[in-house]
Amino acid sequence: xxxxxxxxxxxxxxxxxxxxxxxxxxxxxxxxxxxxxxxxxxxxxxxxxxxxxxxxxxxxxxxxxxxxxxxxxxxxxxxxxxxxxxxxxxxxxxxxxxxxxxxxxxxxxxxxxxxxxxxxxxxxxxxxxxxxxxxxxxxxxxxxxxxxxxxxxxxxxxxxxxxxxxxxxxxxxxxxxxxxxxxxxxxxxxxxxxxxxxxxxxxxxxxxxxxxxxxxxxxxxxxxxxxxxxxxxxxxxxxxxxxxxxxxxxxxxxxxxxxxxxxxxxxxxxxxxxxxxxxxxxxxxxxxxxxxxxxx
Length: 296
Fold this sequence. Notes:
Low-confidence stretches: none
Strand content: 5-15%
Order of helices and strands: HEEEHEEHHHHEEEEHHHHH
Radius of gyration: 19 Å
């Protein structure tokens, strides 16, 4: 979220919380990219805020509630208020249960953590996928996200000014080739998280919990596994190793495309783009996202 929107977004979240009977006297920014995540106190609620009209996916709330009912490891909407998307001052807001913990990214950004943590992460993801297989919800296909990335790269060059001609060809060619390879694999598909990387997993004593379900889509589990550290996918049962490799390369190219979108507000977008281009140039076996973050 841009600096010019930040104060307005915080005010919208705090005033909406107050109108719902939640005591919101101060706000702490937990993360800020295309969406803003805040901890409001003293009510201890997490508010997610985005600019209207685009932004928050209401399906995320429904999905979180359904998964929690089946015992899946997800963070749920705050039960003190109605579970819906609120609108105030040009912003969209949702409210979530607060957990006093960081994400698993903190464990992986400096190197591979203890084996037991990766095993717990993998078990939690398997549990999440099991719960998702029981749900019947209309969700996008993961190839829709690939198409979105191809559209960004295929636009006029002023939309991809961060890419050289050679890098533009690299990203575009990788997206096209791996899209075909993954599509033709004939793998079983199901509901997925969409981006279960360590930054979307809370590190709790009772076990990992997944957040940010708005990227949910249908596809092979290997697409989800392409977002996690290699140590985690190694603990996940019955993985198609070749498909996982293709999905990793596809994810690298997709992330590179999104970082080129002029509407992208990730604070370190150029650094992330450079790391993903480096991974694409390296070629298969494709590096994982966390490995690129450490090498950058």
